[in-house]
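Notes from hallway chat w/ T.B., transcribed later so I don't forget. T.B. wanted the structure written out for a chain they're using in a teaching module, and asked if we could keep both sequence and C-alpha coordinates in one place. Agreed to drop them here.
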Amino acid sequence: MNDCKIGLALGGGSARGWAHIGVLRALQEAGIHPDIVAGTSIGAVVGGCYVAGELEALEQFARDLTRRRVLGFLDFNFSGSGLITGQRLRSVLDVRLKDALMERLPKRFVAVATEIGTGHEVWLSRGRLVDAMRASYALPGIFRPVKIDGRWLFDGALVNPVPVSVCRALGARYVIAVNVNADSCGHGTVVPQMEMVAAAEEVMPTASESVTYGIGGMRNLLKRQFFGRTDTGPGISRVMVEAFNIVQDRIARSRLAGDPPDVVISPRLPQFGLFDFHQADALIKGGMLAAQRELEDIEREIALRRAHRAAANSI
Protein backbone atom coordinates (compact mmCIF):
# COMPACT_ATOMS: atom_id res chain seq x y z
CA MET A 1 0.00 0.00 0.00
CA ASN A 2 1.28 3.47 -0.90
CA ASP A 3 1.08 5.59 2.25
CA CYS A 4 2.46 8.69 0.53
CA LYS A 5 0.27 9.26 -2.47
CA ILE A 6 1.60 11.91 -4.84
CA GLY A 7 -0.84 14.34 -6.40
CA LEU A 8 -0.18 16.42 -9.52
CA ALA A 9 -2.25 19.56 -10.15
CA LEU A 10 -1.91 20.86 -13.72
CA GLY A 11 -3.17 24.40 -14.22
CA GLY A 12 -4.77 26.19 -17.15
CA GLY A 13 -2.94 28.49 -19.52
CA SER A 14 -3.89 27.86 -23.16
CA ALA A 15 -0.80 27.28 -25.34
CA ARG A 16 1.49 27.63 -22.34
CA GLY A 17 0.03 24.32 -21.18
CA TRP A 18 2.38 22.45 -23.51
CA ALA A 19 4.92 23.07 -20.74
CA HIS A 20 3.05 20.44 -18.71
CA ILE A 21 4.40 17.83 -21.13
CA GLY A 22 7.96 18.81 -20.26
CA VAL A 23 7.18 18.70 -16.54
CA LEU A 24 5.77 15.19 -16.85
CA ARG A 25 8.77 14.06 -18.88
CA ALA A 26 11.16 15.34 -16.20
CA LEU A 27 9.19 13.65 -13.41
CA GLN A 28 9.10 10.37 -15.32
CA GLU A 29 12.86 10.44 -15.91
CA ALA A 30 13.37 10.98 -12.18
CA GLY A 31 11.15 8.00 -11.35
CA ILE A 32 8.38 10.14 -9.87
CA HIS A 33 4.96 8.85 -10.90
CA PRO A 34 1.92 10.71 -9.51
CA ASP A 35 -0.89 8.56 -8.13
CA ILE A 36 -3.53 11.28 -8.57
CA VAL A 37 -3.76 13.79 -11.42
CA ALA A 38 -6.11 16.76 -11.51
CA GLY A 39 -6.22 19.18 -14.42
CA THR A 40 -7.92 22.39 -15.42
CA SER A 41 -8.35 23.52 -19.03
CA ILE A 42 -5.19 22.65 -21.02
CA GLY A 43 -3.98 20.95 -17.84
CA ALA A 44 -6.93 18.55 -18.13
CA VAL A 45 -5.95 17.73 -21.72
CA VAL A 46 -2.31 16.99 -20.89
CA GLY A 47 -3.16 15.25 -17.62
CA GLY A 48 -5.85 13.13 -19.22
CA CYS A 49 -3.55 12.03 -22.04
CA TYR A 50 -0.84 11.20 -19.52
CA VAL A 51 -3.11 9.02 -17.38
CA ALA A 52 -4.53 7.34 -20.49
CA GLY A 53 -1.04 6.45 -21.72
CA GLU A 54 -1.22 8.86 -24.68
CA LEU A 55 1.29 11.50 -23.59
CA GLU A 56 3.74 10.55 -26.35
CA ALA A 57 1.05 10.91 -29.01
CA LEU A 58 0.00 14.30 -27.59
CA GLU A 59 3.62 15.46 -27.56
CA GLN A 60 4.08 14.49 -31.18
CA PHE A 61 0.84 16.26 -32.12
CA ALA A 62 1.99 19.42 -30.31
CA ARG A 63 5.45 19.40 -31.89
CA ASP A 64 3.96 18.96 -35.36
CA LEU A 65 1.77 22.05 -35.06
CA THR A 66 2.53 25.03 -37.25
CA ARG A 67 0.75 28.36 -37.31
CA ARG A 68 -1.12 27.24 -40.42
CA ARG A 69 -2.21 23.99 -38.75
CA VAL A 70 -3.39 25.87 -35.69
CA LEU A 71 -5.54 28.05 -37.95
CA GLY A 72 -6.91 24.89 -39.51
CA PHE A 73 -8.43 23.86 -36.18
CA LEU A 74 -10.42 27.09 -35.90
CA ASP A 75 -13.79 25.87 -37.12
CA PHE A 76 -15.56 29.18 -36.67
CA ASN A 77 -19.17 29.23 -35.60
CA PHE A 78 -21.39 32.07 -36.82
CA SER A 79 -24.22 31.35 -34.38
CA GLY A 80 -24.57 29.82 -30.97
CA SER A 81 -22.60 30.30 -27.75
CA GLY A 82 -18.99 30.08 -28.92
CA LEU A 83 -16.78 31.53 -31.63
CA ILE A 84 -15.33 28.07 -32.32
CA THR A 85 -17.33 24.84 -32.40
CA GLY A 86 -14.34 22.72 -31.41
CA GLN A 87 -15.42 19.78 -33.58
CA ARG A 88 -12.07 19.54 -35.39
CA LEU A 89 -10.14 19.40 -32.14
CA ARG A 90 -12.62 16.91 -30.72
CA SER A 91 -12.07 14.68 -33.75
CA VAL A 92 -8.32 14.64 -33.08
CA LEU A 93 -8.86 13.65 -29.45
CA ASP A 94 -11.40 11.00 -30.44
CA VAL A 95 -8.84 9.25 -32.66
CA ARG A 96 -6.81 8.20 -29.60
CA LEU A 97 -9.29 8.50 -26.72
CA LYS A 98 -12.77 7.84 -28.13
CA ASP A 99 -13.48 4.84 -25.88
CA ALA A 100 -11.54 6.02 -22.80
CA LEU A 101 -13.65 6.20 -19.63
CA MET A 102 -12.23 8.05 -16.63
CA GLU A 103 -13.36 5.45 -14.11
CA ARG A 104 -11.33 2.81 -15.99
CA LEU A 105 -8.07 4.75 -16.16
CA PRO A 106 -5.08 3.24 -14.31
CA LYS A 107 -4.71 6.34 -12.10
CA ARG A 108 -7.22 8.66 -10.46
CA PHE A 109 -7.95 11.57 -12.76
CA VAL A 110 -10.24 14.58 -12.38
CA ALA A 111 -10.95 17.39 -14.83
CA VAL A 112 -12.27 20.63 -13.35
CA ALA A 113 -15.08 22.57 -15.05
CA THR A 114 -17.46 25.40 -14.17
CA GLU A 115 -21.25 25.13 -14.36
CA ILE A 116 -22.97 27.92 -16.27
CA GLY A 117 -25.56 29.76 -14.22
CA THR A 118 -24.58 28.54 -10.76
CA GLY A 119 -20.81 28.99 -10.98
CA HIS A 120 -20.38 25.64 -9.22
CA GLU A 121 -17.00 23.97 -9.41
CA VAL A 122 -17.60 20.58 -11.04
CA TRP A 123 -15.15 17.69 -10.66
CA LEU A 124 -15.45 15.30 -13.59
CA SER A 125 -14.16 11.83 -12.73
CA ARG A 126 -16.54 9.49 -14.55
CA GLY A 127 -17.68 9.13 -18.14
CA ARG A 128 -15.93 9.85 -21.42
CA LEU A 129 -12.49 11.34 -20.98
CA VAL A 130 -12.76 13.45 -24.15
CA ASP A 131 -16.02 15.05 -22.98
CA ALA A 132 -14.45 15.97 -19.64
CA MET A 133 -11.44 17.52 -21.40
CA ARG A 134 -13.68 19.55 -23.71
CA ALA A 135 -15.75 20.86 -20.81
CA SER A 136 -12.65 21.83 -18.86
CA TYR A 137 -11.09 23.85 -21.70
CA ALA A 138 -14.31 25.41 -23.07
CA LEU A 139 -13.16 29.03 -22.79
CA PRO A 140 -16.26 31.25 -22.45
CA GLY A 141 -17.13 32.97 -25.70
CA ILE A 142 -14.45 31.08 -27.64
CA PHE A 143 -15.51 27.43 -27.40
CA ARG A 144 -19.04 26.13 -27.12
CA PRO A 145 -19.92 24.93 -23.60
CA VAL A 146 -20.34 21.18 -23.14
CA LYS A 147 -23.40 19.48 -21.67
CA ILE A 148 -22.65 16.61 -19.27
CA ASP A 149 -25.31 14.95 -17.10
CA GLY A 150 -27.74 17.79 -17.76
CA ARG A 151 -25.26 20.54 -16.83
CA TRP A 152 -23.78 23.06 -19.24
CA LEU A 153 -20.09 23.39 -18.42
CA PHE A 154 -17.21 25.60 -19.46
CA ASP A 155 -13.61 26.35 -18.50
CA GLY A 156 -12.69 25.28 -14.97
CA ALA A 157 -10.10 28.05 -14.65
CA LEU A 158 -12.90 30.39 -13.59
CA VAL A 159 -13.17 28.56 -10.27
CA ASN A 160 -10.00 26.50 -9.74
CA PRO A 161 -7.12 27.37 -12.10
CA VAL A 162 -4.56 25.09 -10.41
CA PRO A 163 -6.57 22.28 -8.75
CA VAL A 164 -4.49 21.53 -5.66
CA SER A 165 -7.66 21.12 -3.58
CA VAL A 166 -8.82 18.26 -5.81
CA CYS A 167 -5.61 16.31 -5.19
CA ARG A 168 -5.93 16.84 -1.44
CA ALA A 169 -9.54 15.72 -1.43
CA LEU A 170 -8.61 12.51 -3.25
CA GLY A 171 -6.03 11.61 -0.63
CA ALA A 172 -2.75 13.01 -1.92
CA ARG A 173 -0.16 13.40 0.84
CA TYR A 174 2.29 15.32 -1.32
CA VAL A 175 1.01 17.69 -4.01
CA ILE A 176 3.02 19.06 -6.91
CA ALA A 177 1.36 22.06 -8.58
CA VAL A 178 2.28 23.32 -12.03
CA ASN A 179 1.36 26.95 -12.68
CA VAL A 180 2.19 27.88 -16.27
CA ASN A 181 0.73 31.36 -15.85
CA ALA A 182 2.92 32.50 -12.97
CA ASP A 183 4.74 35.06 -15.11
CA SER A 184 2.01 35.86 -17.64
CA CYS A 185 0.60 38.74 -15.58
CA GLY A 186 2.25 41.15 -13.21
CA HIS A 187 1.45 40.99 -9.54
CA GLY A 188 -1.16 43.64 -10.17
CA THR A 189 -1.09 47.28 -9.18
CA VAL A 190 -3.21 50.39 -9.37
CA VAL A 191 -2.36 52.80 -12.17
CA PRO A 192 -3.46 56.35 -11.26
CA GLN A 193 -5.34 58.35 -13.83
CA MET A 194 -2.96 60.52 -15.83
CA GLU A 195 -3.52 63.62 -17.89
CA MET A 196 -4.74 62.67 -21.32
CA VAL A 197 -2.42 64.05 -23.97
CA ALA A 198 -4.39 62.69 -26.89
CA ALA A 199 -7.85 61.44 -27.61
CA ALA A 200 -8.45 57.77 -26.88
CA GLU A 201 -7.47 55.69 -29.86
CA GLU A 202 -10.31 53.83 -31.46
CA VAL A 203 -9.60 51.20 -34.07
CA MET A 204 -12.11 51.52 -36.88
CA PRO A 205 -12.77 48.91 -39.50
CA THR A 206 -11.19 49.45 -42.87
CA ALA A 207 -13.33 50.11 -45.90
CA SER A 208 -12.92 46.51 -47.04
CA GLU A 209 -14.07 45.30 -43.64
CA SER A 210 -17.18 47.45 -43.66
CA VAL A 211 -18.83 45.74 -46.59
CA THR A 212 -20.89 42.58 -46.59
CA TYR A 213 -18.70 39.47 -46.44
CA GLY A 214 -18.95 36.12 -48.05
CA ILE A 215 -18.19 33.11 -45.87
CA GLY A 216 -14.54 33.08 -46.91
CA GLY A 217 -14.11 36.75 -46.12
CA MET A 218 -15.72 36.36 -42.70
CA ARG A 219 -13.42 33.47 -41.88
CA ASN A 220 -10.35 35.50 -42.79
CA LEU A 221 -11.56 38.44 -40.74
CA LEU A 222 -12.23 36.26 -37.71
CA LYS A 223 -8.79 34.67 -38.00
CA ARG A 224 -7.21 38.13 -37.91
CA GLN A 225 -9.36 39.02 -34.93
CA PHE A 226 -8.37 35.80 -33.17
CA PHE A 227 -4.62 36.32 -33.47
CA GLY A 228 -4.61 40.11 -33.44
CA ARG A 229 -4.80 42.72 -36.17
CA THR A 230 -1.98 44.20 -38.19
CA ASP A 231 -2.46 47.62 -36.56
CA THR A 232 -1.89 48.47 -32.91
CA GLY A 233 -5.31 47.25 -31.79
CA PRO A 234 -5.66 43.67 -30.48
CA GLY A 235 -8.34 41.41 -31.93
CA ILE A 236 -11.56 40.84 -30.02
CA SER A 237 -10.68 37.24 -29.20
CA ARG A 238 -7.30 38.26 -27.85
CA VAL A 239 -9.02 40.84 -25.65
CA MET A 240 -11.41 38.18 -24.34
CA VAL A 241 -8.68 35.66 -23.61
CA GLU A 242 -6.34 38.20 -22.02
CA ALA A 243 -9.17 39.42 -19.76
CA PHE A 244 -9.92 35.83 -18.81
CA ASN A 245 -6.23 35.26 -18.14
CA ILE A 246 -6.10 38.19 -15.71
CA VAL A 247 -9.10 36.81 -13.82
CA GLN A 248 -7.54 33.34 -13.80
CA ASP A 249 -4.26 34.70 -12.46
CA ARG A 250 -5.97 36.50 -9.56
CA ILE A 251 -8.06 33.44 -8.67
CA ALA A 252 -5.01 31.18 -8.84
CA ARG A 253 -3.05 33.38 -6.44
CA SER A 254 -5.93 33.33 -3.97
CA ARG A 255 -6.54 29.58 -4.21
CA LEU A 256 -2.84 28.69 -3.91
CA ALA A 257 -2.46 30.96 -0.89
CA GLY A 258 -5.46 29.37 0.82
CA ASP A 259 -4.55 25.77 -0.04
CA PRO A 260 -0.83 25.74 -0.81
CA PRO A 261 0.75 22.75 -2.53
CA ASP A 262 3.94 21.18 -1.24
CA VAL A 263 5.85 22.49 -4.24
CA VAL A 264 5.01 24.75 -7.17
CA ILE A 265 6.67 24.29 -10.54
CA SER A 266 6.49 27.58 -12.44
CA PRO A 267 7.98 27.47 -15.95
CA ARG A 268 9.56 30.73 -17.08
CA LEU A 269 7.63 31.55 -20.24
CA PRO A 270 7.34 35.35 -20.46
CA GLN A 271 7.88 35.47 -24.22
CA PHE A 272 5.05 33.07 -25.08
CA GLY A 273 1.49 34.14 -25.69
CA LEU A 274 -1.72 32.26 -25.04
CA PHE A 275 -2.14 31.43 -28.76
CA ASP A 276 1.42 30.19 -29.41
CA PHE A 277 0.42 26.55 -29.80
CA HIS A 278 2.94 26.25 -32.65
CA GLN A 279 5.80 26.92 -30.20
CA ALA A 280 5.54 23.50 -28.55
CA ASP A 281 9.26 22.65 -28.73
CA ALA A 282 10.26 25.67 -26.67
CA LEU A 283 7.30 25.40 -24.29
CA ILE A 284 7.97 21.73 -23.54
CA LYS A 285 11.64 22.51 -22.94
CA GLY A 286 10.62 25.32 -20.56
CA GLY A 287 8.46 22.94 -18.57
CA MET A 288 11.22 20.34 -18.36
CA LEU A 289 13.78 22.88 -17.14
CA ALA A 290 11.36 24.21 -14.51
CA ALA A 291 10.72 20.72 -13.16
CA GLN A 292 14.42 19.86 -13.12
CA ARG A 293 15.08 22.94 -10.96
CA GLU A 294 12.74 21.53 -8.31
CA LEU A 295 13.60 17.83 -8.59
CA GLU A 296 16.18 17.70 -5.79
CA ASP A 297 13.74 19.17 -3.27
CA ILE A 298 10.86 17.03 -4.53
CA GLU A 299 12.83 13.79 -4.29
CA ARG A 300 14.11 14.65 -0.80
CA GLU A 301 10.65 15.58 0.52
CA ILE A 302 8.99 12.48 -0.89
CA ALA A 303 11.70 10.24 0.58
CA LEU A 304 11.37 11.89 4.00
CA ARG A 305 7.58 11.55 4.04
CA ARG A 306 7.72 7.92 3.03
CA ALA A 307 10.30 7.24 5.74
CA HIS A 308 8.16 8.96 8.36
CA ARG A 309 5.06 7.04 7.27
CA ALA A 310 6.97 3.76 7.34
CA ALA A 311 8.28 4.49 10.83
CA ALA A 312 4.80 5.41 12.05
CA ASN A 313 3.29 2.22 10.61
CA SER A 314 5.95 0.06 12.25
CA ILE A 315 5.11 1.28 15.76
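Follow-up for T.B.: The longest helix spans residues 280-314. Might be a good example for the class.
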